[in-house]
Task: inverse folding
């Protein structure tokens, strides 16, 4: 007999760990379904069993994606948070409040908290981690970043022996779906968004995804863990994808570049940069081939080298996969590990260097090109390549596309700001990561 089945039998009579849920939408139903359909196997394999005892919901009578016994439902937070029978609380209400204060209260009551909520965790990081530390309670959040993809455990565990210099990822599935379709079909942003909303792949109010807030919460968590310094979400630079045009996507293609909403965190010379913005990556980069709603995170460590983690970042069962895995880890932990994050404040970079893609509308007449390149030169920005595209419009303007060498962000912006729109003006500036 194998060790696991032996241990499984050993645990047949053991007491189950009592779990309370905060919320029971699609993810909560996914967790319940996974525990109901796979719980016996988990018990057999892992030697730990779970019983869901109470589920906090807003509406007791709502129909749900999975049959949940109505006796478990309550609309009184104290039935979960202050219930002495409950050992572990799983939070998937979403949103900042009351989720954050409920998590703090559960931790203060000594309960282990397992959450999928990047917004509450990123915006109340210090308070939540402190409550866990002061009450020696477990805090588990693998599901908060990239759903089923085990990136938190990788950074906190498997890659511990590394000084991580960069974490770059596609950590929002909705925007990746939209950008993939724009690239494949040459379609306009608004048309693909409307289609994604019809298919249930984008929210009716898509702001959190398309403006990069969701990715910024996740990047705050990832960079905090990777660099062992708290990187508050307010320090994450953020730009969304709403201004992206099919022309930019097409021009990028002509330079061998693929457009992604990238979350980039780097540590250089003791300074941290954390930014979410549309970014071109060379077609040969592994992130360029991450399509549709998939997520991927590309990590560089001084010992491990380059690694990529790829998978489903959203959806009820992929998210439940990470949540139930955390539940098992928490149940088996002899001692709960907390994030290894120093109290010292992080130094954020105010400027950063990268290749810039600049699409300009410029007058097609002698001397204009030299004005533009002179403007770049005056700021120390060196041009790597340039093409002129298409026919002159009625006003005599054409499209010029520049790729710079690595250049400071501020220098590029200054050069563009000084240009005379009667001669040339930038229509889009997109960073390139290599
Ligand atoms: N809305 C997110 C996404 C999933 O599109 O990836 C939850 O963070």
Result:
């Amino acid at each position: 007999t194998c060790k696991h089945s032996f241990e499984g039998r050993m645990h047949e009579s053991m007491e189950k760990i009592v779990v309370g849920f905060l919320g029971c939408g699609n993810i909560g139903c996914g967790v319940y379904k996974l525990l109901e359909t796979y719980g016996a196997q988990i018990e057999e394999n892992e030697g730990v069993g779970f019983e869901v005892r109470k589920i906090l919901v807003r509406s007791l009578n709502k129909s749900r994606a999975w049959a949940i016994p109505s006796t478990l439902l309550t609309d009184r937070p104290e039935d979960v948070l202050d219930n002495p029978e409950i050992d572990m609380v799983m939070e998937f209400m979403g949103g900042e409040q009351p989720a954050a204060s409920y998590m703090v209260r559960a931790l203060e009551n000594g309960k282990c908290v397992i959450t999928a909520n990047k917004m509450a965790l990123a915006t109340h990081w210090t308070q939540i981690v402190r409550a866990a530390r002061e009450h020696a309670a477990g805090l588990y959040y693998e599901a908060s970043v990239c759903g089923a993809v085990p990136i938190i455990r990788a950074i906190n565990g498997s890659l511990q022996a590394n000084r991580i210099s960069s974490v770059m990822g596609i950590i929002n599935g909705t925007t990746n779906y939209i950008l993939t379709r724009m690239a494949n079909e040459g379609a306009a942003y608004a048309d693909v968004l409307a289609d994604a909303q019809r298919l249930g792949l984008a929210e009716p109010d898509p702001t959190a995804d398309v403006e990069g807030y969701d990715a910024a919460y996740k990047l705050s968590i990832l960079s905090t863990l990777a660099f062992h310094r708290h990187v508050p979400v307010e320090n994450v630079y953020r730009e969304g994808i709403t201004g992206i045009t099919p022309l930019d996507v097409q021009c990028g293609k002509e330079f061998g570049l693929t457009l992604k909403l990238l979350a980039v965190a780097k540590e250089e010379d003791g300074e941290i940069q954390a930014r979410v913005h549309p970014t071109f990556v060379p077609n040969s980069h592994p992130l360029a081939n991450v399509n549709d709603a998939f997520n991927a995170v590309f990590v560089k460590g001084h010992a491990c080298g380059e690694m990529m983690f790829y998978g489903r970042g959203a959806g009820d069962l992929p998210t439940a996969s990470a949540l139930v895995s955390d539940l098992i880890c928490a149940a088996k932990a002899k001692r709960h590990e907390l994030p290894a994050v120093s109290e010292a404040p992080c130094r954020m970079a105010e400027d950063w260097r990268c290749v810039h893609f600049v699409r300009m509308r410029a007058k097609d007449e002698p001397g204009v090109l030299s004005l533009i390149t002179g403007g770049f030169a005056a700021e120390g920005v060196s041009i790597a390549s340039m093409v002129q595209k298409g026919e002159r419009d009625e006003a005599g303007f054409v499209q010029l596309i520049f790729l710079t060498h690595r250049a400071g962000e501020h220098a590029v912006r200054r050069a563009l700001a000084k240009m005379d729109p009667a001669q040339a003006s930038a229509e889009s500036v997109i960073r390139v990561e290599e």
User: Anything to note?
Assistant: Residues 22 and 76 are 10 Å apart (CA to CA).
